[in-house]
Amino acid sequence: MSYTGNVEVGGPPDVRELPGLTVTKLAVGPFDNNAYLLRCTATGEQVLIDAASEPERLLELLGDAPLSRVVTTHRHQDHWGALGAVVDATHPSVVAHPDDAEALPLPVTEPVRHGETVRVGQHTLSVIHLRGHTPGSIALLYDDGDTPHLFTGDSLFPGGPGNTWGDATLFNRLMDDLEKRVFGVLPDETWVYPGHGKDTTLGRERPHLPEWRARGW
């Protein structure tokens, strides 16, 4: 069965085979968070994006392959509820942006900033800093040479940017970053894997940018 990205809490994961990388999406916890396990097909090395909740289910996904890193996309607790348990069991590097690091329950051992990279075996993810939802929110970009794949945390969803709680300054900062660092440089076919809910593409969302600006959220 082909990948859809449609997962439910308590249900099975969805798996996508990319050139060089396998993406496994799992919905966990009371806030319906998405956790993404990326595995290099050449080395077996794995990276987990957002150890959100239900550590036993996340650890089951890992199997016997090594977990080299856990990336936390931003400081909100629903995205790191299982971080301590996963790190205690597997001893990976803890990756996050410095601006959100102090809010995490464990020290960040591998801080990353805009334009830097995160390794997954033989492959790299590019870090995109998207300010607004939190000061240190990041997205991670994997370009397989055909279709770019973007893991956006809570900064971009189907239907709009992440929550900025009615703060016009935060909203405009997030929209500026999305337009400059995401929509301004990546093609329509870029696949978007958000922190909650269903996937989308930049092409599906791009026509609505003026609408988002006008509504202010």
UniProtKB/TrEMBL annotation:
| Alphabetized InterPro entries for the sequence | MBL_Glyoxalase_II, Metallo-B-lactamas, RibonucZ/Hydroxyglut_hydro
Q: Which domain of life is it from?
A: Bacteria
Listed SMART domains: Lactamase_B
One Pfam family per UniProt: Lactamase_B
> Which residue intervals define the domain Metallo-beta-lactamase in the entry?
32-196
> What is the name attached to this protein's record?
MBL fold metallo-hydrolase
Source organism: Actinoallomurus liliacearum
The taxonomy runs: Bacteria, Bacillati, Actinomycetota, Actinomycetes, Streptosporangiales
